[in-house]
């Protein structure tokens, strides 16, 4: 049996990339009974019946699984924001970061459209870039117009499965096109993010860019904290997590407990107020959700 990775699923066929070749496979008959649905991103063992065709015999255990789009084993999320048009939003970034961290996916932050910054907006965006780098996140500032910074993304893609995520219009498709000339993804395509609620089975495909695999559709289209428990939230803010052993109470939620190291860092200006405020509002949102049931 050979080993490979599913890069596309379409009409009952799975396209398995193995040693540089793509084999068109069907799932084993027993999968249906065992309720196993192979996903794009799955590592599989397959039996080739010819040079081009085969059967998937086994699906390896998944590291994680996204629902929309359906992809397994995502290593990282490239969170794309624009500096302006639309304006950079730190609360939206924090929301993405929490969702990504909670799935044990590594986030990479990209701030695109840097060419559009003016004298007034530049220092604001640069301040955010400094703050997020200070937390320890990788932040890449790009422009697909001047091409500045775009190539810095390539080494991050190598050997990994990545999804691009971010609001419509920030430049995700433009970035992918810039990273892989000839890809020709549609840009300024506002129809694609309206699929919600409609019964469109969106097919996903992983495309090879920079020695890695990238999903061709944006990830994390649902931005609600539906699967998140209160206790998980403090783990999704790395700069809180690293200080939490200094809090007086074990399992401190950094809300109203005394002698809280996070509160202390906030007062000292080591944690920006907006990060803490977003944390509090997410905590309230999670609690609120619970009382609804
Ligand atoms: N000025 C400027 N415009 C950009 C940049 N990147 C993308 N755009 C434009 O922003 C619009 C949305 O880009 P698109 O790639 O479709 O965004 P997506 O919805 O995130 O895939 C298009 O009109 C692009 O030409 C950039 O770096 N600078
Ligand atoms: Mg797009
Ligand atoms: Zn605390």
UniProtKB/TrEMBL annotation:
What residues does the CP-type G domain cover? Answer: 63-223
Gene Ontology biological-process annotations? ribosomal small subunit biogenesis
- Can you tell me which residues bind GTP? 112-115, 166-174
An example molecular function term from Gene Ontology annotations: rRNA binding
Its predominant location is cytoplasm
Domain of life from the UniProt record: Bacteria
Q: Where in the cell is it found?
A: Cytoplasm
- Binding of Zn(2+) occurs at 247, 252, 254, 260
Please list the residue ranges annotated as the EngC GTPase domain: 72-221
Instruction: Describe cofactor binding as the record notes it.
Output: Binds 1 zinc ion per subunit.
- Alphabetically ordered keywords of this record: Cytoplasm, GTP-binding, Hydrolase, Metal-binding, Nucleotide-binding, Ribosome biogenesis, RNA-binding, rRNA-binding, Zinc
Tell me which cofactor or cofactors this protein depends on. Answer: Zn(2+)
Cellular component GO terms held in the UniProt record: cytoplasm
Known EC number: 3.6.1.-
- Assembly description: Monomer. Associates with 30S ribosomal subunit, binds 16S rRNA.
Purpose = One of several proteins that assist in the late maturation steps of the functional core of the 30S ribosomal subunit. Helps release RbfA from mature subunits. May play a role in the assembly of ribosomal proteins into the subunit. Circularly permuted GTPase that catalyzes slow GTP hydrolysis, GTPase activity is stimulated by the 30S ribosomal subunit.
State the similarity comment.
Answer: Belongs to the TRAFAC class YlqF/YawG GTPase family. RsgA subfamily.
Q: What is this protein called?
A: Small ribosomal subunit biogenesis GTPase RsgA
According to the entry, what is the taxonomic lineage of the organism?
Bacteria, Bacillati, Bacillota, Bacilli, Bacillales
